[in-house]
User: What shape does this take?
Amino acid sequence: MKRVVALLAAALATVALTACGGGAEPGAPERATLVLDFQPNAVHAGIYAALHEGYYRDAGIDLDVHQPSASTDAPKLLEAGKAQFAILDIHDLAIARERGFDLVALMPIVQRPLAAVIAGDPDGVHRPRDLEGRTVGVTGLPSDDAVLDSVVSADGGDPARVDRVTIGFSAVASLAAGRVDAATAFWNAEGVALKGQGVATRTFRVDDYGAPRYPELVLVTGAQTFAGESGLVRPMVRATTRGYTIASDQPARALDDLLAADSSLDRGSQTAEMNALQRAHAFDPPGRFDLAALHEWSRWEVDHGIVDKRPSVERMLGDGAGPPRRVQPDASG
Assistant: This one.
C-alpha cells in the first residue's frame, strides 16, 4: 500500500493554520481536507470527477484529498478537527463509534458490500461450504471473520471447521501462489487483480450469503464539523453526489478525471475495476442511504461480532439533523 505520511501531515498542518485564523480572504472558498480509506482507485472516481468539474469549488470548498498513513488515522483526525471529512469502511465506522468517536455518516460512496470470500481453486471449491477443512486467509480485521462466517454459514457450512490464517493484505499474492485455498478480499479490487493475472477464482460476495446490501464505504465527518460548520457539510454532500452521478452515468469520464489526478495509476487495471463496479451497480443511486438496509446491517454487525452493541443508525446519521439524506445533483450536473 502506497503511503504519503509527509504529504498528509503537511496538508493537515495547513488546514490547522487556516482553522486558527491563518486565513482565507473573505468570500474565498473554505479549506477542507478529505482523507481517503486507501490509495486512489476506481471506487473514488466520483470524488475526482467532482474535483475536475469544479463542483467543490462551485460549492465554496477548497478541497484537499489525501490517502491515510494507516487505517486508524481518519477517526482520530476527524475527532481532533484536523480533517473535516473522510471515507471509512462502514465496519470501521461502527467500531470507531463504539470506541467513543463521535462521527457522523453523511452519504454512501458505494451502495453494496465490496467484501467477499475468493477461492483460488474453482474446481475444488464450488460453494462456500466446500471451504470446510480448507485454509482461508484473513487480514486480521474483525470484519474479515464476520464476512467468512456469514458466507460459510449461509450455505449451511460450519465456519468453525475452516482453517483461518492471518495473511494481512496479501490476498492476491497468497492466492496466486497457492499458499491459501481462499481469502477474504474486495471483489472490485483483489478479485479484479487476480483475474488480470490469469488466476482462476470463484467469488462468494457477502451480500449473496447472509449479509444485507449495506454501503461498504461512506463519507464521514466529525461531530464538531457536523454541528458547527453545516455550511460546509451540505455543499460537500451535494458536490460529492454530483461527482458520483458522473461515475454512475458516465464512468469513462469519471475514470479519466481520476487518472488525470494520479498518473501512477494503471489505466487497464482501473478500467477493469470500474467495469466491475458498474456491472454491480455499486454507485446507484448516488448519495442516498437505504435506511432499511442500514437497519439490517446494524443487526448483522452485532450478530457477527464486529461490535458488541447494535449500532444506532439514527445516531450514526446525526439524529436526523444536518444535511439532507436524499441530495439531488443540480440540473447542470
